[in-house]
Automatic annotation (TrEMBL):
Presence of the UniProt keyword Hydrolase in the record: yes
Keyword terms, alphabetized: Hydrolase, Magnesium, Manganese, Metal-binding, Protein phosphatase
Species the sequence originates in: Arcella intermedia
Superkingdom, taxonomy of origin: Eukaryota
Gene3D superfamilies, sorted: PPM-type phosphatase domain
Family (UniProt): Belongs to the PP2C family.
Domain PPM-type phosphatase: 1-182
Pfam families named among the record's database cross-references: SpoIIE
Catalyzed chemical reaction(s): O-phospho-L-threonyl-[protein] + H2O = L-threonyl-[protein] + phosphate; O-phospho-L-seryl-[protein] + H2O = L-seryl-[protein] + phosphate
Protein name (Swiss-Prot/TrEMBL): Protein phosphatase
Kinase listed as a keyword: no
Length: 194
């Protein structure tokens, strides 16, 4: 489905994340399996996003979280997914988000392996690490370490308790982290010297 999202955005020039996800979903109907999906499109200073499942993102401004997507679950530890043998579709079931961005805003996007194992407050602390690649690596490392610990209160353990499921510690899972920083738009062309 990721390839088809790329086709939608680049070749078909579909700019709305929901429409791009729906296109990818329709083009992937013959592929066996299912997936969660979180797609963010940045256009000038506008963030638009479509999310289905338990991947998530946060937007940070002045060291405060100003937008946090929420996970979608059928029941505890069973996220919404699109694909074969699923009745869900992007058009019908995706959560939509829109936000005006400002220079120096950060966007942190990740799979459930990130958000299940690391509190967003720990992500805020990582913003001071400099470049986005360093921030992403630091956040991924923290989530991985937490996923292996047995006696730590993670977001997943807290949610398990809320659902009367006995669980302690982290949750081993894949961990993917993307970090972007909003910068001032540069004027195209070569600056002229006086």
């Amino acid at each position: 489905m990721a390839k088809e999202v790329g086709v939608a955005l680049i070749e078909k020039k579909i700019r709305a994340p929901l429409d791009a996800l729906q296109y990818a979903y329709e083009q992937s109907k013959n592929v066996t399996g299912s997936s969660t999906a979180c797609l963010i499109v940045l256009n000038d200073n506008q963030l638009t996003a479509a999310n289905i499942g338990d991947s998530q993102f946060i937007v940070i401004r002045n060291n405060q979280i100003i937008l946090e997507s929420t996970e979608q679950q059928i029941k505890f530890n069973m996220p919404y997914q699109i694909g074969t043998d699923c009745d869900l579709t992007p058009k019908k079931d995706a959560q939509l988000y829109q936000l005006s961005l400002q220079p120096n805003d950060y966007i942190i996007m990740g799979t459930d392996g990130l958000f299940d194992n690391l509190k967003t407050s720990a992500m805020l602390n990582s913003i001071k690490k400099g470049k986005c690649s360093g921030i992403a690596q630091d956040i991924a490392n923290k989530a991985f370490v937490n996923s292996r610990k047995k006696n730590i209160v993670t977001p997943f353990a807290k949610l398990a308790k809320e659902h009367n499921v006995s669980w302690s510690g982290g949750k081993p899972d894949d961990i993917t982290v993307l970090v972007a920083k909003v910068v001032n738009k540069q004027v195209k062309g070569t600056p002229k010297r006086k």
